[in-house]
Amino acid sequence: MKALITRKVGMTSTISEDGATVAVTLLSASPNVVTQLKTTETDGYTAVQVGTGESKLNKAEAGHFEKSKISPSVVREFRVPEITEDLRLGEQLTAEVFSVGDMVNVTGISKGKGWAGTIKRHNFHRGRKTHGGGSYRRPGSIGSMYPQKIFKGKKMAGQMGHEQVTVQNLKVAIVDMELGVIGVVGAVPGPRKGVVLIKGAEK
Fold first, then answer.
1. Are residues 193 and 93 in the same domain?
2. Do residues 14 and 41 share a domain?
3. Are 75 and 127 in contact (CB under 8 A)?
4. How far is 52 from 33, CA to CA, in rounded Å?
5. What would the pLDDT profile of 20-73 be if each residue is shown by its tens digit?
6. Domain CATH for 82
7. Longest dimension (CA), the chain
8. d(CA 29, CA 97)
9. Number of domains the chain contains
10. Gap between the Cα atoms of 138 and 191, Å rounded
């Protein structure tokens, strides 16, 4: 299974083989432990649940993670086509599941920007500031006389950011087993130390 729970470290740059500077996001990949195997017979779908980190557990959580002998702070689930023989409860997954050149999808929670207006949130133009214009950063008309309602999905002011974002087909540029670091080309959603899921891109 090519999937890991990681944490975002930050960005740096590397020099590619053709001499170009490439922006790379570094992800800290501490060992992940398989905490549950879900099958179609027992759960209705096939998935692998993994955990990482350390935290205090309540009784229900302690019972769930007893077999895998771990008390994780972060738990996530990855859908897989089938459960292979090498996947067992308590099995550790490290950065070596990926190699340089692999194409991956990364998922994270984007930075929250708070309540934002339409100019910042949707790239609206501002109104004119001359010739009698008095509506500078307002959204303008949001509907006509008919049908006496505002359609769902109308671009208006609201909460911006802090939502799940997936970036597809990023290339793995660095795999450092000694430091437990994976570097992917391009930007990854979320702040530093944010949880980022990295999974092999389906061909």
1. yes
2. yes
3. no
4. 6
5. 999 999 999 999 999 999 999 999 999 999 999 999 999 999 999 998 889 999
6. 2.40.30.10
7. 73
8. 11
9. 2
10. 30
- Measured on CA atoms in the order 56, 6, 86, 44, is the torsion positive or negative? positive
Structure tokens at 105: 């999808």
Which residues does 83 contact at the CB level (< 8 Å), separation at least 6?
A: 37, 39, 46, 48
* DSSP state letter for 132: T
Q: How many CB atoms are located within 10 Å of the residue 16 CB?
A: 11
Rounded to whole angstroms, what are the CA distances from 125 to 117, 131, 138, 151, 153? 11, 17, 9, 21, 19
- 143 and 85 in a single domain? The answer is no
Give SS3 for 41.
Answer: helix
d(CA 198, CA 191): 15
Q: DSSP label at 196?
A: E
7 and 34 belong to one structural domain: yes
Task: Give residue 51's domain range.
Answer: 3-113+164-200
What letters, b where the CB count within 10 A reaches 16 and e where it falls short, cover 83-116? Answer: beeeeeeebebebebbeeebebbbbbbeeeeeee
19 and 79, same structural domain?
Answer: yes
Q: What is the pTM of this model?
A: 0.88
Q: How far apart are CA 98 and CA 6, in angstroms?
A: 13
Q: Are residues 86 and 133 in the same domain?
A: no
Per-residue pLDDT reduced to its tens digit, 122-147: 999 999 999 999 999 999 999 888 98
